Structure formats: C-alpha cells, structure tokens
C-alpha cells in the first residue's frame, strides 16, 4: 500500500518575499547603492508537504499557509527531482491550495471516501516533518467533524493521533487501501509539537475546493439565507422535533433562496447532497462549497416526516468594511451592515462578521464569521462606519459584545 502512496507525496520549498520588497525605494538599485544597502539574498526553505492528485495534469494539493506569501514554490519528488510549481489557486477559508507542476512521470494518489471514515479506522500520515525527509506515521481516526477550533474558516476536521509535526502540513492522510482521505493541516501541542492531536481537511472538502479552483480560479461561496443551530435535546424540544444529529433552522431570510425553496423555521436539516449533516457547521461547509447558482439538495425532517428540498445557492451579501483597518487585533475580519431581508434584521442592531481569514489576528482572537457585533466597550454600534469609529476610539483591552447563535458573548482582546 505504501509503495504506491509515498511517491505521490512531495516536499514543498518556498522562496519568501522580503518584507522590504513592499517599499518601492528599497527595490530601486540606485537608492540601495547610494545608501550602501547590501543586496538581500533570497533564502529557500522547506515549508511543508503536498500530494499529487492528478498525474496527467500535474496537480498538487497542499495547504494555503504553506505557500502563502511565497515568491517561488519548488516541489521535490521522492526521486529527488525538483520542479518549479505554479499556483493554480488557493482558498484561505479551508487552508487548501492547488499547484501545477510539469506532468512528467508522476505518480498520483487516488481520492478515497472521507465521508465513509469512522472513529477507530486506521490511517497513515505521510509528509516531511521538520524538513528531514519523507516520513510515515500511523494511528487511528480519533474524531470526525471537529470544528470551533479557531484554526480555519471552514472547519470539518478529521482528528487523528497519527504523529503530525511541523512540515507535515499539506501531506497525505491515507486509509489502509492507500487512498487519500485527508490533507494534514494542523496540530495542537506546546510550541507546535505533536502530542497526539492532529487534524486533516477531509478529502471530500479538498476535492470540492480543487474543482472550483480549476473551474473559476477561486472558490465562489454563496448563501442560502438561513440561520441554523446544532440540534440538541433542548432545541429539539423547543421546535418539537426528534433529537439526534442535524441542524435546526432558527431563522429564514425573507426572499432568500431558502425561503423560495420552502425551508421553514423549525425544519431540521439532516443531509446535503446525500452527505449527512451533524450540526450547524456542516450546513455552513456544504453551502459554502456549493458554487453560486448551483442547486443543493437538502434532507429535511419536518413534523415527524422526512422530505427533500432543492434550493439554488445565491450570491453572498455585500461586504462593506475591514475591521483590521481600525485595529490590528481584528485584521482578517470583514464586516457588513445588517440589511433588510437578513434573518437578524429588525431583531438586533449591529454589524455582521461576513468573513474571517484563516489564521488571521481576528481568528486567533476568537472572532467567527456569522457573529453579530453590537457593542465596542461601552459604545453601541449600529453600522459599519460606527463600528470602525468605535474601534479606533476604544481603549485597551478591547471588549466586543456580540451575538453568536443564541448566545451573547463578550470577547476581551488584549
């Protein structure tokens, strides 16, 4: 099994941009000679791993954070060939990037069914930890559908105890049939070391991202116009439905694709395009990876019966402000006004967090897409302009009062 899998896993080295290159004066050779500034050598460093998934087209999947800000990317195969790679596209929200290399005598790894994984299944992690060379470790699937970790924007991680260390990012998580079931992406441990808790992006998600990048050059996310919550015994009792796995619809935006398709408050979403929905995070992931204009088939439990509803994914709402322009602690977050037609319009005054960039300062400080911020310190905010003004005037520590689902939360950011 490994004899077929390991040639498809590659090392990725990058040449990073010199921060000074952003200053046009520092790029001027006359300026550098006048002030006797030495030429800064560019250094190549081993950044992570990647997986060849299409030998005929030379397609390599890796993590976005592996190649972010890279000026050049070099892919080194197991047979030690070093090939320059071109970036086909990247999606920070899922931490997936797609590279192209010359399609000459390559070995590709076949996609497996990551939806069929079960806790306890044996898996193998292949990568290049610490840049020491290709390494194989084994373990089991410890958990599925991990989210809320504050690592990436669209979280649906496979958790494994197979040893994953720095440099494994972008490498392969493989089942015992030698099929790709995940792209290794993150670890939790002191100083970034392994303590038996590693995470991988499911192959199904990575494959959907790749398909959109090949089609559009980017991931085009849409929306249905619903607010959902995890189905707990409490919410099941509140809406009069059977408890179990799923996501309950708590609000439907008037005139939205969900409204036009017939979704109602209290419906329980149990599947999307045949794939099970375990909670609200799954709804966000499934909708977010369905291109704008395409249909999504939802399995719905309503009044004790089950039905299917088809909805056409619509355009996302307009983004109108970047929080990082006001304070660096919220860099990577974009906010929008709560416009008429949105589920929370008329129920709360504030701004909605439209997106949070993966691994950004805002993500590290606990902000999530979908949060509704209505207070900065002691000031109430009702619009993007008021929110940005309040941020600029705020004293340390920064305190944000927000609504996350049905919970009111105060974030204290230092």
Question: Could you explain the architecture of this structure?
Answer:
It is a single chain. By secondary structure, the chain is α+β, with helices and mostly antiparallel strands. It has four domains: 2-100, Thrombin, subunit H, CATH 2.40.10; 114-216, Trypsin-like serine proteases (Thrombin, subunit H, Beta Barrel), CATH 2.40.10.10; 226-312, Pdz3 Domain (Roll); 321-413, Pdz3 Domain. It is built from nine helices and 25 strands. It has helices at 2-5, 29-34, 64-67, 203-216, 233-239, 257-261, 280-288, 361-364, 384-393, and strands at residues 9-16, 44-54, 59-62, 70-76, 82-91, 96-100, 122-127, 135-146, 157-160, 172-175, 180-187, 198-202, 226-230, 247-252, 268-272, 275-276, 295-302, 305-312, 321-322, 333-337, 351-356, 372-376, 379-380, 398-404, 407-413. The strands form four sheets. Strands 19, 20, 21, 22, 23, 24 and 25 form a seven-stranded antiparallel sheet that branches. β4 and β5 form a beta hairpin. The longest helix has 14 residues, at 203-216. The chain is globular and about 60 Å long. The termini are far apart. The model has no long low-confidence stretch (mean pLDDT 82).
């Amino acid at each position: 099994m490994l004899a077929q899998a390991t040639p498809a896993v590659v090392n990725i080295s990058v040449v990073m941009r010199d921060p000074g290159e952003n200053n046009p004066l520092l790029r001027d050779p006359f300026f550098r000679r006048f002030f006797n500034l030495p030429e800064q050598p560019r250094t190549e460093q081993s950044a992570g791993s990647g997986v060849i998934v299409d030998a005929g087209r030379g397609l390599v999947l890796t993590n976005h954070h592996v190649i972010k800000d890279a000026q050049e990317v070099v892919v080194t195969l197991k047979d030690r060939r070093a090939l320059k790679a071109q970036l086909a596209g990247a999606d920070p929200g899922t931490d997936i990037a797609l590279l192209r290399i010359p399609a000459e005598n390559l070995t590709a790894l076949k996609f497996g069914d990551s939806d069929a994984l079960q806790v306890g299944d044996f898996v193998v992690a292949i990568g290049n930890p610490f840049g020491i060379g290709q390494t194989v470790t084994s373990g089991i699937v410890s958990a599925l559908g991990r989210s809320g970790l504050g690592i990436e924007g669209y979280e649906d991680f496979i958790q494994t105890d197979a040893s994953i260390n720095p440099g494994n990012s972008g490498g392969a998580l493989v089942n015992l049939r030698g099929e790709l079931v995940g792209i290794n992406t993150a670890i939790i441990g002191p100083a970034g070391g392994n303590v038996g808790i590693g995470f991988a992006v499911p192959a199904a998600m990575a494959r959907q991202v790749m398909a959109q990048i090949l089609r559009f050059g980017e991931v085009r996310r849409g929306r249905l116009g619903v607010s959902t919550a995890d189905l707990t015994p409490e919410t099941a009792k509140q809406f009069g439905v059977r408890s179990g796995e799923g996501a309950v619809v708590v609000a439907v935006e008037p005139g939205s694709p969900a409204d036009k398709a017939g979704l109602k408050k209290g419906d329980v979403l149990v599947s999307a395009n045949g794939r099970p929905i375990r909670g609200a995070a799954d709804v966000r992931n499934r909708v977010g990876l369905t291109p704008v204009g395409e249909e999504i088939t939802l399995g719905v439990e309503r009044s004790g019966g089950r039905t299917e509803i088809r909805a056409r994914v619509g355009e996302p709402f307009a983004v109108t402000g970047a929080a990082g322009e006001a304070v660096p602690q919220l860099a990577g977050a974009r906010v929008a006004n709560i416009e008429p037609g949105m589920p929370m319009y008329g129920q709360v005054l504030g701004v909605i967090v439209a997106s949070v960039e993966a691994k950004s300062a805002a993500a590290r400080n606990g902000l999530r897409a979908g949060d509704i911020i209505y207070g900065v310190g002691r000031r109430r905010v009702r619009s993007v302009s008021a929110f940005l003004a309040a941020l600029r005037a705020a004293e340390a520590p920064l305190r944000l009062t927000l609504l996350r689902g049905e919970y009111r939360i105060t974030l204290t950011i230092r």
